Amino acid sequence: MVRPRTTSDEEILAAAARAVGQVGAARLTLAAVAREAGLAPATLVQRFGSKRGLLLALAKHGSEGGASPFEAARAAHRSPLAALHAALAALAAPVESPERMANNLSFLQLDLTDPEFREHAAADARRTNRRIADLLTDAVAAGELETRVNVPRLARAVQVAYNGALILWSLTGDTPLKQALRADVDEVLDPHRSASS
After folding, report:
1. Rounded mean pLDDT, 26-35
2. Which sequence positions fall in the DNA-binding region (predicted)?
């Protein structure tokens, strides 16, 4: 008789994401993920086959789950620009320190050097860009941004500001990350705000 799974793949992938944040992708071990998930390493091998299989599953899960912070922010805020700030802050929430940022950036090395990982990272980047553009389109309709704004170009600029803010904050840490992120994104948005907003 097959025993039912008591820990879902989603819970395991969340544990894997936490473990990557603690030690980085290169130093990650199945034993570390198993400890974080409260499982035996053999369970991870049964489900994912290998460390690479687990990391690919994590990359795929991340690229498919990119909408949830945006959906949650939309539900919580009437203002599309407030929702945008909230969604970006939620995306950045796992970056609690420069060390965590470095550990998460170790995943980027896989994204840049391995075609299978790159495919998931590119899908995630495109999906995030669309979510940003959707909120900017809503902000135009709500009168928060000027009607003549070029939404695709502004969405790209916001995404670049978001990623750049994470890197600069990791190097300087002058202000809390959430505050730095908001200031950098506002620097991009402010010239496009409507006079009535």
Report:
1. 90
2. 29-48
